[in-house]
Design brief:
binds 4'-phosphopantetheine, 3-stranded parallel sheet, alpha/beta, 5 strands
């Protein structure tokens, strides 16, 4: 069985992430989307909230599982016996960081964890979780960035109550 893990912060998941998830789930038999529990960041959504949002957003994809992890990705992948990590590439600006991450993971795992990049579909290339949060904080329209139920959750966090 071909399995892969798609690690990330997903704070919050965007249409860009969902596009990568859908396409990776077509390539692999099983895809685990795993939310990093990063104590250094102060996220908008807790890990539990992000897991729930991802579960809801991917419920139509039967071979996609949602999980979370802390610590090193290579240790998590080893525990899960998964040898491919998926990452999305939006633009050349992502490349340097992603290449370093992929090479570090390959080196640390003695080649046991490879990284497969999927280029983000052009329509989502401008999207980032940070810009979604910034737009929402100032009451902007994020309907083109995230599913409606996610938008509502984000606006709630900023005390706006409803979508617009
Ligand atoms: O969505 P993000 O924040 O760009 O995802 C980054 C992520 C989670 C893939 C990366 O930070 C990660 O794998 N962190 C876990 C710690 C780790 O293994 N780091 C690599 C060696 S420095």
């Amino acid at each position: 069985m071909k399995a892969a893990v798609y690690p990330g912060s997903f704070d919050p998941v965007t249409y860009g992430h969902l596009d990568i998830i859908r396409r990776a789930s077509d390539i692999f038999d099983e895809l685990t989307v795993s939310v990093l529990n990063n104590h250094l960041k102060s996220p908008l959504f807790s890990v539990e909230e992000r897991v729930k949002i991802l579960e809801e957003a991917t419920k139509d994809l039967p071979n996609v599982k949602i999980d979370c992890f802390s610590g090193l990705l290579i240790d998590y992948a080893k525990k899960k016996d998964v040898h491919v990590a998926i990452r999305g590439l939006r633009a050349i600006t992502d490349f340097e960081y992603e290449l370093q991450l992929a090479q570090t993971n390959s080196k640390l795992s003695n080649g046991e964890l490879d990284t497969m990049f999927l280029t983000t579909s052009l329509e989502y290339a401008y999207l980032s979780s940070s810009s979604v949060k910034e737009i929402a904080r100032f009451h902007g329209d994020i309907s083109m960035c995230v599913p409606a139920f996610v938008a509502e959750r984000i606006y709630e966090k900023y005390g706006h109550g409803s979508c617009r």
